[in-house]
């Protein structure tokens, strides 16, 4: 036994070693398999190499950096493969914004008979080749995105695309009748034809599987057809930006799955259909910029989370339950004929409330403080009275607050100091009084501050310089006194400063270098005009009229190449008027000592002497200034909201 045992020991060791080596080999093979993705089917590899050649010749090579013949084709950017048996097949191809225009590439892509999804959006294709209709690709294709191209001719035949579920042809120039093509797509769920040139009545000959229909931004006309309500699977219906007329049909109970209904920017009339109130799945309804009339139905926001009925002719009072549903997020009723009080029950989830340009009266409800998520509040151009409720300070997510052009009064409550996220405050054209609240200086995200046409008094606080993002400051038409804070020059993004019609004294300080509009008129400023104003290269509008300025107009004004309007009237200026860039509208009347040296009979100097002439030139300057301001806004790198400065 002992001999046998000694003889078998080496054999057992060899077996263990062999097993261990086999295990190592299998592990290394598995690792090698993981590091070496399965290769593309040979036929499709040749097709993809043909596509590479066509793509590379059409675009910047940086977009196809991963597209090279030495790498696995399934790892190319925009290419997705699915493994099957011993090889892989291309199932998704995404080439958006590649600058493609040669239809030959479509003929090559058509040969990919395993393709499920094709994205060729944001290219420059003008038509689909004849090979597109009979191509092998159509057998498996489920998603086709040709949006943002230049397609304008006949689309060809979609017969055979039996698996196609999503078709996006938006933002092209198509105007041909497409209804016959849709009959070839039995599984179509989503159709986007927005922003083309389609005309005539709305399509009603479609497959019953359709769930999303987007035909906005076309020239469809006539009434909303009742035949549209046959498609009971619809979840998204966008008919906005067309030429539709007539009443909105009261047939929405036929859409039990409808989630989004967009009817904006048409010529629809009549009342809001009652059937909408019973579509329990509907969470967004927009029918703004139409001619809807009548009252807003009670319970309309019971299910709807986002409601936009702005720019219509709706009248009467707002329903008492309009703002109270728990899931309500957005209400926009701007520019209607609504009257009465603002309902007092506010949803805690309310995020955006726009009620401007109506005839609402009464006070702002104290219960608005319950809307703790409220970020955008616009109650401008109404007949609201009373003070700003201190409870508004609980809405510490507020980004924009517009209470302008009402009959509000009192002081700005200290509780608003909690609104640290505020970027826009518009309180102009009310009856507010007192000093500029110190709390504003702590709102460091502020970009727009408009307190004009009120009864504020005292000095302009130097602490406003802490608002480092401020781009628009309008304090005109108050009773501010004292000097203009010299620190105002450090507001590096300030583009508009209007301090006119106050009681300011002292001299004109150095101004921010990016200033585009500077209005200091109707004050008691004295001294000379600083020559450094001529270095403000973005200046478009300068109004220093009705002050006590003296001395000469700086020769540096000749450097104001972008200047559109200049008013220096009714001061005590003297000496020669420097030559200004051609086309500037100028008013220097009321300065007897000022001389204009020009031999040009068609002088650029407009000695505006009438109020109508003054208003005319001011309007031209203002319009031009808006355009310039927006341009400078982007140039300066300031983000959003530039349009708020002038609304």
Automatic annotation (TrEMBL):
E.C. number(s) listed in UniProt: 2.7.11.1
Domain (Leucine-rich repeat-containing N-terminal plant-type): residue spans on this chain: 57-82
Molecular function GO terms recorded: protein serine/threonine kinase activity
Pfam families cross-referenced by the UniProt entry: LRR_1, LRR_6, LRR_8, LRRNT_2
Topological category with respect to the lipid bilayer: Single-pass membrane protein
Entry superkingdom: Eukaryota
Xref: InterPro entries: Leu-rich_rpt, Leu-rich_rpt_typical-subtyp, LRR_dom_sf, LRR_N_plant-typ, LRRC69/RLP
Residues making up the signal peptide according to the UniProt record: 1-32
UniProt KW keywords: Glycoprotein, Kinase, Leucine-rich repeat, Membrane, Repeat, Serine/threonine-protein kinase, Signal, Transferase, Transmembrane, Transmembrane helix
Chemical reaction(s) catalysed: L-threonyl-[protein] + ATP = O-phospho-L-threonyl-[protein] + ADP + H(+); L-seryl-[protein] + ATP = O-phospho-L-seryl-[protein] + ADP + H(+)
GO CC, any one term: membrane
Cellular compartment(s): Membrane
Transmembrane segments: 619-638
Principal localisation: membrane
Protein name: non-specific serine/threonine protein kinase
């Amino acid at each position: 036994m002992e001999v046998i045992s000694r003889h078998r020991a080496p054999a057992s060791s060899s077996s263990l070693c062999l097993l261990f080596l086999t295990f190592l080999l299998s592990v290394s093979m598995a690792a090698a398999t993981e590091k070496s993705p399965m290769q593309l089917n040979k036929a499709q590899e040749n097709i993809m190499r043909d596509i590479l050649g066509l793509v590379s010749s059409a675009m910047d090579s940086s977009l196809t950096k991963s597209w090279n013949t030495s790498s696995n084709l399934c790892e190319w950017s925009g290419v997705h493969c699915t493994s099957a048996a011993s090889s892989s097949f291309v199932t998704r191809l995404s080439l958006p914004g590649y600058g493609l225009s040669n239809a030959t590439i479509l003929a090559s892509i058509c040969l990919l008979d395993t393709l499920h999804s094709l994205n060729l959006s944001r290219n420059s294709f003008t038509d689909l080749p004849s090979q597109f209709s009979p191509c092998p690709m159509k057998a498996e294709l489920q998603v086709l995105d040709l949006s943002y191209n230049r397609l304008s001719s006949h689309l060809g035949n979609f017969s055979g695309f039996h698996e196609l579920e999503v078709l996006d042809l938006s933002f092209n120039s198509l105007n041909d009748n497409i209804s016959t093509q849709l009959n070839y797509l039995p599984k179509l769920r989503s159709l986007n034809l927005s922003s083309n040139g389609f005309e005539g009545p709305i399509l009603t000959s479609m497959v019953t599987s359709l769930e999303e229909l987007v035909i906005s931004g076309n020239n469809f006309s006539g009434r909303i057809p009742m035949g549209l309500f046959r498609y009971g699977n619809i979840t998204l219906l966008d008919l906005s930006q067309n030429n539709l007329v007539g009443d909105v049909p009261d047939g929405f109970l036929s859409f039990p799955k409808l989630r989004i209904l967009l009817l904006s920017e048409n010529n629809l009339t009549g009342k809001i259909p009652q059937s909408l109130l019973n579509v329990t799945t509907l969470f967004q309804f927009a029918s703004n910029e139409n001619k809807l009339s009548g009252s807003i139905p009670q319970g309309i926001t019971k299910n709807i989370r986002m409601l936009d009925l702005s720019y219509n002719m709706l009248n009467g009072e707002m329903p008492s339950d309009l703002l109270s549903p728990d899931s309500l997020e957005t209400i926009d009723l701007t520019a209607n004929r609504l009257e009465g009080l603002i309902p007092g029950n506010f949803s805690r989830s309310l995020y955006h409330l726009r009620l401007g340009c109506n005839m609402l009266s009464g006070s702002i409800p104290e219960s608005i403080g319950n809307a703790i998520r409220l970020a955008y509040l616009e109650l401008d151009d109404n007949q609201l009275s009373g003070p700003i409720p201190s409870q508004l300070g609980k809405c510490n997510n507020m980004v924009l607050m517009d209470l302008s052009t009402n009959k509000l009064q009192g002081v700005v409550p200290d509780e608003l100091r909690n609104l640290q996220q505020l970027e826009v405050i518009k309180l102009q054209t009310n009856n507010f009084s007192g000093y500029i609240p110190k709390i504003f200086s702590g709102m460091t995200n502020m970009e727009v501050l408009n307190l004009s046409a009120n009864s504020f008094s005292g000095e302009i606080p130097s602490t406003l310089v802490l608002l480092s993002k401020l781009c628009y400051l309008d304090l005109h038409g108050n009773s501010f006194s004292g000097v203009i804070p010299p620190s105002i020059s450090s507001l590096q993004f300030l583009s508009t400063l209007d301090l006119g019609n106050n009681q300011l004294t002292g001299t004109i300080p150095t101004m921010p270098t990016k200033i585009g509009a500077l209005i200091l008129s109707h004050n008691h400023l004295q001294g000379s005009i600083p020559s450094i104003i001529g270095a403000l290269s973005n200046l478009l509008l300068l109004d220093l009229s009705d002050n006590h300025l003296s001395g000469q107009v700086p020769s540096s004004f000749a450097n104001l190449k972008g200047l559109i309007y200049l008013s220096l009237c009714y001061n005590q200026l003297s000496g020669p008027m420097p030559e200004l860039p051609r086309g500037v509208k100028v008013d220097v009347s009321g300065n007897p000592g000022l001389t204009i040296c020009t031999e040009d009979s068609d002088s650029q100097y407009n000695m505006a002497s009438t109020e109508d002439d003054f208003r005319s030139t001011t309007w031209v300057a203002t319009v031009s200034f808006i355009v310039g301001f927006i341009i400078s806004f982007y140039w300066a790198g300031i983000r959003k909201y530039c349009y708020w400065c002038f609304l």
